[in-house]
Amino acid sequence: MAERVEIFEVGPRDGLQNEAARIATRDKIALVNLLSEAGFSRIEVASFVSPKWVPQMADSGEVLRGIWRAPGVRYAALTPNMRGLNDALEAEADEVAIFGSASEGFSKANINATIDESLARFAPVLEAAGAEGLRVRGYVSCVVECPYDGPVDPGQVVRVAEALWQMGCYEISLGDTIGRGTPEAVDAMLAAVCDALPAERLAGHFHDTSGRALDNIEASLARGLRVFDAAVGGLGGCPYAPGAAGNVATEKVHERLATLGYETGLDADVLARAAEMARAMRGDG
Ligand code: HMG
Ligand code: MG
User: What is the spatial distance between Cα 50 and Cα 4, in angstroms, rounded to a whole number?
Assistant: First the structure.
């Protein structure tokens, strides 16, 4: 039997948070509802951050409350602080995520905190989420390069990933936020992180700015990673990372994994329809 690899769909959050056009809440809900038919176990649909920082996510509560909840699918939300966690609980997110950075420059630009300040801010979120029985995922951004600080030392990635892990995150998603990673740089970074944390608890989160995301996924597979974040239709970017293109497209990852002999459990026809819907939403359909 083919080995299983999971694609974690992040298009409704990472994708739509960066679209210039205002996207109607009902369209976001329609996209999530279609994605819910594709066979994902987890879909990131919301982000409870300051609407001044990311206005595109201001309707996150309405989205979470408006979607159809497919059995067996967990609907996730970003929660940078206690305020975000409380909003996510109220909207009945199934799991939440905190997001830190391996580089100081991006940490400041993205969440207005140094790395150490951000870790201190996350600790009560982990504690309160745990008390509510909610799982928390941890993101580390800029795992190979930072738009402000340049190349990032793998040791810095290990430090932040380990801190999030020790706080209780069930999985650590390693983000090549600006998509500058090469397979060699990703491999060197993963060699360091996999010395500290189990590969089966890591996920790869590759933006496709330089067209190398699929090669970086292959490099990560070789290091034992079996979860990859992707956005249907290649939606997205990051508002605080100039030059960040969309996440690698879910349908491309699905296709590459199938070629490599892995099984994702996803329905290619539904993915194609969702990709079409995503492209139409951003006006290039
Ligand atoms: P701050 O200014 O330091 O925080 O921002 P604050 O506590 O002083 O609050 C400032 C204002 O925000 C206040 O409102 C708060 O009430 C409000 P005001 O008094 O000015 O009217 N506020 C909130 N509103 C709604 N929900 C909240 C919330 N918290 C405070 N949860 C903060 C700190 C973290 C809030 C801010 O920097 C922020 O919202 N940043 C979010 C940036 C973001 O969402 N970036 C994109 C997601 S990360 C990403 O895409 C990377 C990833 O994909 C992985 C990768 O690719 O590498 C995950
Ligand atoms: Mg991202």
Answer: 37
H/E stretch holding 42: strand 42-47
pLDDT digits (tens, 9 = 90+) for 163-211: 999 999 999 999 999 999 999 999 999 999 999 999 999 999 999 999 9
Q: Which amino acid is at 96?
A: V
**Model ipTM?**
0.98
Which architecture, in CATH terms, is 6-282?
Alpha-Beta Barrel (3.20)
204: exposed, middle or buried (Cβ count in 10 Å: 0-12, 13-18, 19+): buried
What's the pTM?
A: 0.97
Distance from the first to the final alpha carbon of the chain: 37
Percentage, residues of the chain above pLDDT 70: 96
- From the CA of 47, give the closest atom in ligand 1: 44
Span from the CA of 267 to the centroid of ligand 2 (angstroms): 24
Q: What angle do CA 53, 161, 8 make, to 5 degrees?
A: 65
Q: How far is the CA of 6 from the centre of ligand 1 (A)?
A: 29
Cβ atoms < 10 Å from Cβ of 158: 20
Assess whether 194 carries a catalytic annotation: no
Ligand closest to CA 60: 1
Place of tokens 């996207």: 23
